[in-house]
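Field: COMPLEX_INPUT
Field: COMPONENT_COUNT = two
Field: RESIDUE_TOTAL = 1148
Field: MODE = joint
Values follow.
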Amino acid sequence: MILLDGAMGTMLQAEGLLPGERPELLCIERPEVVKNVHKKYIAAGSNIIYANTFEANAKKLAGFNYSVAEVVAAGVKTAREAVDEAADNAVAEAAASSTSRSDVLVALDIGPIGELLEPYGTLTFEEAYEIFKEMLTAGEAAGADLVVFETFSDLYEIKAGVLAAKENTSLPVITTMSFEKNHRTFTGCSLEAMAVTLEGLGADALGINCSLGPEEILPMARELASYTSLPLAFKPNAGLPDPKTGLYSVYPKEFAEIMNRFADCGMKLAGGCCGTSPDYIRAMSEIFASRSDDAAADNAAAVDASTADAVANIAGDTAAGASVGIDYYNPKSSVCSPSVVVDTSKVCVIGERINPTGKKRFKQALIENDIDYILKQAIEQVEAGADILDVNVGLPEIDEPEMIVKVVKAIQSVTDTPLQIDSSDPQAIEAALRIYNGKPIVNSVNGEPEVMERIFPLIKKYGAAVVGLTLDKNGIPASAASRFEIAERIVNTATSYGIPRKDVYIDCLTLTVSAQQEAALETIKAVRMVTEKLGVNTVLGVSNISFGIPLRSLMNQTFLALALGAGLKMPIINPSSEPVMDIISAYRVLDCSDSGCLAYIEKYSKRQSADQATLRRSGSSASRPTDIAAAQSTSYAAAQDTSQTASQAVSHDSAQTNAQASVGHESTDTQSVAGLITYAIEKGLKQETADNVRKMLESASPLDVIDNVVIPALDKVGELYESGRFFLPQLLNAASAASEGFEIIKQKIKETGENSVSKGDIIIATVKGDIHDIGKNIVKVILENYGYNVIDLGRDVAPEVIVKSAAEKDIKLVGLSALMTTTLSSMQETIKQLRDSGHECKVMVGGAVLTRDYAKTIGADFYAKDAKEAVDIAKKVFG
Amino acid sequence: MKQFYPHVNKDNILRQILPEKKNILADGGELLANDDSHSFDIFDETDIVSQMQKNAAELENIAQCNYTYAICDISFGKDTADFEKPASADHRSNLDVPLILTYRRRSFELLGKDIRRLLSECTQCVIFAATIGPQIDRIMKKKELESMSDALIFDMCASDAIENLCDDINDELDDYFHSRGLFLTDRFSPGYGDLPVSASVDIARILDASRRIGLTFNNYGLMMPLKSVTAVIGISDKPQPMRIRGCKFCRMSDSCSFKKRGLTCYSID
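Field: COMPLEX_OUTPUT
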């Protein structure tokens, strides 16, 4: 066992020290006090002491007269001197104690920055990386032996730290995070996601510190041990503090006794956090020394080791399989986000729709930077049952690395479904791997040595999983045996880069059955061979099979069922296609992953009654009319669904055809359709609005539909709202319905190449420092409804960005929102910079703390009390 | 510390989204039998009610109640060099006696007349910080993409839940101190009256709130997670009057949409 130290802050208070705002500065101002604490821990038996550098970061030191490098260096130096002096003392005491203490290691201690990272907060991943890098390089230069990241609750933040450590230093890295009683961190990170992600990134040890006492952490330690082969580190608090007194509840002897039980589940490094003192470390030292097993041997080994890297010793120990806790480790094939781990050894659905190939509307969204459209695709797929989302944003017209970073960050801000990064551009792949929060899949490499050489080092470095396509420079081999050979080559090469087999997924490739009919079963055969002989998971793009044939879903269903039977684990499909998802649901019953058929029953019991009603109807003329009605409406809904999903799978051209087919050949009465649209918008009925707009567009121009139907309907809703008969939720429901209509109109315009119908471009943004943006987003939806093209710069937007965008795009109206008194200054500054830039535009402002008068004093042209008023202002500005 | 669970007062949410309708929900949040006198011609309120119920249930499922508190000593007028400068650049109010709170030898100053008035008969006070977690912020973003009206209602539910958590904590503290013969003042948060919003930063620092409950601030003093609260409650040996309820102390009162309609956002029991 390697003994860490205990609390620093608790000890400083015990020394009678008034803790100032920045305890780290003590190492400069009164280093002897800190040194004393270190010495006490060394005397108590600590093998590693943590330098007093926890929050010595650029954010926390801002406004003090010391640089990060100075404070970090002082912290490391103080700890180093404590080690040296303790060693001298030991010599001076004629080596009375058998342990020379010169082997004690000094850890650079790094805690959270203290600001929440994106997407929850405003600090970017890249900024966090730079903040850690500054501490790390200073720490290594000052002579730290290793680095400890501790007390983190955000996986994203600790990832930035570990990456910075790996890329800028050669220090061993220990990582510990703080978990609550629900086995999650504050930001929702699970133990498994932490283990999977940090082990992948190359941490040398991981564990848990702070938050709770040893009793509460023990069950988590057991769980954690099953997720990782790394040595585990635990530093619990001295129990739970009583808020009325601030005192902790667990005393040294009891603490050590509980910690002794941690040794049985793989703990290699033990210490204490808040409330602990050298007495706690001493108690642990005694109890570990009295053990008769490996833990005691480890203890002796650690104590005997020269300053030669004790952490490396332990890591080596574990690799040799000699450690105590190794039995707990249950290696499993998985990918994750911070809060969701997907077990990829079970059937899981990869959603295919975030991909511009063959999709005009998606391409348009990419080119126009319409991230919201892409996010809606993501959310829809997750709601439809996708376990993983494939993300492909490759398009010649755009900067792929930049776009994939933007899209991956955006998707992770709205869903915790893990992602598959789909690109052939190594730069885009690396850019996405860096900023992905969790452990992703990379799609893909193939049997070409150059491709593997380029991509595998990235997979290893970022700890991702990877898809290998069974093709090489000679193309896709016809036979299953040849594809298997390539698969084997890929797996072996990956292993040689240190990528575990469990993280390599093979794609045996689906060919279109209408073009190469005999190839279909070869693919199935290859899936079976890879599954059985190589023992790795397989991925397969299923929908390819059915290009160019009618009723594609039937072919997809059949092929998918065969592939699953052959061992396919990760089909890449459109999860919104109900028939295809039905196969998945049924298969999950057959392979026992849907235990007790619960999910199946829940999903299909309703449909069954509809089926029976249909049967009764066709079987007997005497069935009750209500059943028939139910059956009819169900089958109508099913027909709608099918046309929709088919359109998503193919393209929007056929979507139009399908939709037209589904409305039938009845004569289109524009007048009555307009009435239906108005009604649907007022009632907030999305599907009805979309259907009727589609119908009306057959005989009317897009502009007609907007000006004569949609906007008057919205005006009516607006009046109802103003008169207090409609309330905001209804207004918004109406707006959502109108948006659906607009989406149809946009598609129509795209297809016919007509000019845009925008009534004017408006920039809106929530000002710098503010991230309350629901108000701004409501205004955006309503303005868009009225036909304005809204350029949403987002929240926490710097004045310079707003000025630049306004000038570049020659914007005549800028809308700014601020919700806090503290960010009103940002609003004022933005208006000032807009005026100073010389770009002529009107500025409207809104937000809860604003008043009409205040808007005037900060130089705004208009104050909008709500979204309706924002529209009136836009009408005024654009005429 | 007692574990609290998030709950939304559904009646309260309805009062906000349908201000003219009261009592259409029973106590348990169930819709009462259809009362035709409330119906509009083209709008079916049961839709809104079920939309609210759906969002409230989701919020209650997702939110995580975390809080921490400490008991501080209060000193008036002892101007020492020891206490930490307040994070705010605001001028001290013209009452020139500083109000200083001290917890385990760490001290900080609270600014403004209102807080002085609140704590005038107290020698100690509770400072606390509470949050319902950052997950709410992400779900909000997702909902804004799916349905803005769901997002709006969910946001209202979240605001209601954090207030309810504060009330739960307050009740708990009330019981504790009352059983010891002591009395609590009203709960007062930075941003009420003339207590600067920035006092939150000081309270959170003294409580070590980023470590204990994951409460952080950005450069502008904005609390993250968004649905978080810090507050001060005085402890006195005399019964304390209600001092600060109502619009007079609300920083939104200038632009309040309820007030303009002659309504309040709270219920008058």
